[in-house]
Amino acid sequence: MATILWIIAVIFVIAGLYTLLARRDLLWGIILIVVGLLIGPGGVSIFNP
């Protein structure tokens, strides 16, 4: 399960960076990066109590 969470978190962070740099959309980029950091098992995972 941890591997799947890492993969999902990496996808969100990469999408957030792409949104920030390529599309110049600050709000959505920050939201995607924060969601990726919350999902990742190395951070504060929202799936663990």
Total count of strands:
0
Structural class: mainly alpha
Q: SSE string, helix = H, strand = E?
A: HH
Q: Quote the average pLDDT.
A: 83
Proportion in β-strands:
under 5%
Largest sheet: none
Give the CA-CA distance, first to last residue. 15 Å
Number of helices: 2
What does the overall shape look like? elongated
- Rg over C-alpha atoms, rounded to the nearest angstrom: 11 Å
The low-confidence parts are: none
InterPro entries: GPGG_membr
Transmembrane segments: 5-21, 27-47
Keywords: Membrane, Transmembrane, Transmembrane helix
Would you give an account of this structure?
This protein has helices at 2-21, 26-39. The protein is built from two helices and no strands. The protein is 69% helix and 0% strand. It is mainly α and 49 residues long.
What is shown here, in short?
The chain is mainly α.
Features:
about 50 residues; mainly alpha; 2 helices; about 70% helix
Question: Can you lay out the helices and strands and say which pair or pack?
Answer:
Layout: H1 2-21, H2 26-39
Transmembrane segments: 5-21, 27-47
Keywords: Membrane, Transmembrane, Transmembrane helix
InterPro entries: GPGG_membr
